[in-house]
């Protein structure tokens, strides 16, 4: 579960590295934001009282009228569902395709005055007989009703996807790593080791990055490895790419300039989920530099929300245009710009979009105070990201592939000289998260969802 263990910040003025007392590998909530917050950001505030798991014998009391169905839970709380909602979520074979997991019933097939004519409750759930001509029957597991409650929401079930391990520069002591042969070894049935791929993806989820060691330093075998993990996403850079300082693309990555900590493809409506790098060569000497930088953007965001909640709020609210315009024939601009810090419906930080080089023209629709406030907020966040506490510098070598959650962890590099060739690929966020969820289900390595198959879908 999530623990409130934010670092004791010993200095408010961030002139010196933050002597955060945070230890790496602490599971800490990512900061929370709700659009009503103007001054302070509640971190870790949970909805309602801590959840009290249903004891087997505890059966709620259920009553219905022509509009709604109310549930009085044994722990004293009451929730209400619109009858239309319940009928719409029926999972019987007439309403829901057992194999495709898709809804069969259309909205027009739900009578406006739908309501239960009979209600039964037992430990398997709530069973309703509806006012339809065929006396349609629906059954809802009690867990589903607790988890989907919205009037009011009950303390929500935080599945393991909410827990991340925030880290600072001390991660260098033992960074998350997995070996190439673990992934490439086939299981008894000749299948690629799904368990090892799940271990890799769980580490990427938990830490925001993971190294894969002993990868043959060829583009071909790197591509083969990536494709075993998840499908490669094609972009204007191609699918699997190799790059060097030849400005073959109109982007600084194709130069020998240093690049500050950033996330990639902020100019896409859907930024790449994984950024995967593998250095193929950089003879040094004579080459110099080209060291890789990693910063946990969720760690520094949690510091920002603690030190400067107003700044956190501004970076969470004000949209920032981004673009890629340096290559002939490419004029990428997302039709809907987004804030730097984006949150899910639970107010959990879910996506960081941070790229100073690709940032467009700010301020459209902002007030003068918001322009000033955003720059103050951005400079504060930038200072946290550049702190000795946050920066993890690592010299990549041929043979070590780096998988980064591009929605969370920023990467960068120091300027370099000499001939340096990197290869890698992007993977879509939905694609790697789907792969991880499907492997989790297949191997149930992590806590199984609290609901069985038909009810744990589409949240
Ligand atoms: C990774 N590869 C070299 C192919 C492309 C790099 C793109 C860099 C771009 N400024 C961005 O942030 O998206
Ligand atoms: O060359 C590197 O090490 C990183 C380049 C980079 O930041 C990028 O491709 O986005």
Give a verbal description of the structure.
This protein has nine helices and 24 strands. β6 and β7 form a beta hairpin. α4 packs across α9 and α6 crosses α7. It is globular. The N terminus is likely disordered. Bound molecules: N-trimethyllysine (M3L) and 2-oxoglutaric acid. N-trimethyllysine binds next to β11. Its cofactor is L-ascorbate; Fe(2+).
Provide tags for this entry.
24 strands, binds N-trimethyllysine, Double-stranded beta-helix, GBBH-like_N_sf, NE0471 N-terminal domain-like, 2 domains, disordered N terminus, 459 residues, four-stranded antiparallel sheet, alpha+beta, globular, 9 helices, binds 2-oxoglutaric acid, six-stranded mixed sheet, 22% strand, iron
Provide a short characterization of the protein structure.
This protein has 459 residues and is α+β, with helices and mostly antiparallel strands. It has 9 helices and 24 strands. The two termini are 19 Å apart.
Helical stretch tally: 9
Terminal CA distance: 19 Å
> What is the level-2 CATH architecture name of the largest domain?
4-Layer Sandwich
User: Which range does the strand content fall in?
Assistant: 15-25%
Q: What share of the residues lie within helices?
A: 10-25%
Strand order of the largest sheet: 9-10-21-13-24-11
Name the hetero compounds present: N-trimethyllysine, 2-oxoglutaric acid
Which class do the helix and strand fractions yield? alpha+beta
- How many E-type strands? 24
CATH class of the largest domain: Alpha Beta
What's the name of the CATH homologous superfamily of the largest domain?
Clavaminate synthase-like
Q: How many discrete domains? A: 2
Main sheet characteristics: 6 strands, mixed
Tell me the CATH topology of the largest domain: Double-stranded beta-helix
Q: Specify Rg, calculated over alpha carbons.
A: 25 Å
Low-confidence stretches: 1-29, 37-52
Sum up the overall morphology in one term.
globular
Let me know the average pLDDT: 87
């Amino acid at each position: 579960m999530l623990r409130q263990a934010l670092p004791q910040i010993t200095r408010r003025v961030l002139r010196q590295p933050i002597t955060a007392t945070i230890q790496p590998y602490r599971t800490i909530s990512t900061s929370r934001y709700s659009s009503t917050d103007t001054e302070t950001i509640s971190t870790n505030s949970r909805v309602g009282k801590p959840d009290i798991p249903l004891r087997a014998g505890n059966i709620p009391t259920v009553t219905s009228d022509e509009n709604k169905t109310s549930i009085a839970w044994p722990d004293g709380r009451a929730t209400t569902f619109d009858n239309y909602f319940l009928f719409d979520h029926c999972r019987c074979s007439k309403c829901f395709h057992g194999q495709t997991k898709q809804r069969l019933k259309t909205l027009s097939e739900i009578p406006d005055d739908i309501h239960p004519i009979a209600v039964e409750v037992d430990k398997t759930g709530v069973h309703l007989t509806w006012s339809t001509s065929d006396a349609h029957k629906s059954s809802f597991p009690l867990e589903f009703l607790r988890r989907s409650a919205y009037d009011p929401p009950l303390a929500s079930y935080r599945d393991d996807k909410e827990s991340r391990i925030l880290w600072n520069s001390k991660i260098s002591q033992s960074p998350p790593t997995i070996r190439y042969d673990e992934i490439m070894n086939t299981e008894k049935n000749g299948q690629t080791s799904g368990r090892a791929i799940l271990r890799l993806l769980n580490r990427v989820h938990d830490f925001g990055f993971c190294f894969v060691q002993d990868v043959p330093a060829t583009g071909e075998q790197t591509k083969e490895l990536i494709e075993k993990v998840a499908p490669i996403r094609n972009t204007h850079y191609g699918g699997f790419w190799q790059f060097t300082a030849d400005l073959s693309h109109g982007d600084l990555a194709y130069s020998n300039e240093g690049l500050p900590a950033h996330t990639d493809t902020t100019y896409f409506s859907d930024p790449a989920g994984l950024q995967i790098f593998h250095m193929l060569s950089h003879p040094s000497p004579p080459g110099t530099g080209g060291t890789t930088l990693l910063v946990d953007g969720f760690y520094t965001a949690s510091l920002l929300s603690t030190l400067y909640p107003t700044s956190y709020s501004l970076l969470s609210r004000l949209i920032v245009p981004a673009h890629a315009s340096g290559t002939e024939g490419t004029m990428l601009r997302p039709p809907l710009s987004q804030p730097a810090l984006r949150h899910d419906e639970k107010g959990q930080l879910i996506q960081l979009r941070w790229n100073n080089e690709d940032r467009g023209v700010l301020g459209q629709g902002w007030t003068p105070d918001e322009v000033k406030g955003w720059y103050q907020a951005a400079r504060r966040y930038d200072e946290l990201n550049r702190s000795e506490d946050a920066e993890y510098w690592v010299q990549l070598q041929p043979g070590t592939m780096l998988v980064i959650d591009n929605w969370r962890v920023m990467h960068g590099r120091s300027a370099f000289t000499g001939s340096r060739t990197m290869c890698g690929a992007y993977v879509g966020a939905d694609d790697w998260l789907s792969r991880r969820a499907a492997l989790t289900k297949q191997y149930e390595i992590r806590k199984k969802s609290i609901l069985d198959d038909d009810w744990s879908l589409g949240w």
